[in-house]
Specification:
Elements lengths: L2 H18 L9 H8 L3 H13 L3 E3 L5 E3 L4 H4 L13 H14 L6 E2 L1 H8 L3 H13 L3 E3 L5 E3 L6 H19 L8 H15 L8 H17 L4 H21 L5 H19 L3 H15 L3
Antiparallel strand pairs: 1-2, 3-5, 4-5
Length: about 290
Amino acid sequence: MGGNLARDIAREILRLRRQEQWDVGVTVPVQTLARRLGVSRTPVRKALLLLVDEGVLERETGAGFRLRPLQPSDREGGLAGSISLTASEESDLSSRILADRASNQISPDVSESELLARYGTSRGAVRKALQLLAAEGLVHRQRGHGWRFVESLDNEDAIAESYAFRISVECAALRQPGYRADERELAQLRNAHLDFLETPPGMASPQEWFWINAHFHEAVAAWSQNRFFLQAIRHQNSLRRMHQYADFPSLTPAEIEQSCRDHLGILDAIGMGDLARAETLLREHLSAATKP
């Protein structure tokens, strides 16, 4: 796998470190990251070596990696050195492929040859673009031949039905008698939203946007202490992933800011124990997303 994929994985590792507030000195496990990011250990190890070069990690005795203190440039929202390069040709192509799949211009099962003919580029570029999408869990290689995209909400009716279902489930989660927020997770979510609001326009990634949204809605469900609420919302997030990645470039900064502030208002209400207020805000937030 090429260097572009390694840089994209390095950015994902930096995102996880910031949003999950990894402790300085913690060991960064290759196998665990590979499993979380849906890639093999080889590109993860290349990404970790890039982060060593950037001063984010240091090598441990043997083959391990350890987190160094946060660098000033990263506190300011930048990614140092080669990791901060603008989107590669493969990243641009992967975005086009994703948008075309989200609009049903590409079938769920597709071959590299079909994509090669459609986009008029090299086989290497197509393969690298697919590898980028695979690293995000949006497509996987099929045995023998071709690639398959993940299941998604593929029409407006399905999207509307999904929001109606989520309103019912997520609001019901807040009414459960054992509802209890995890204070540390709530604080992490608030910080992730505040950090995202400070990200300069054009610098935010669809990966980070998806993570913030998915983590927020899953946490609201999980705090109900009912595993079935959480399972339902995780499935919905999986179905939404394709469109959320594809639609991200069309979102305005004002729309992104409003969504973040909606989430922060809901988190604040939950933190204060005002679950009725949190439910009202959540219902308004989800209902607004269904409007054209």
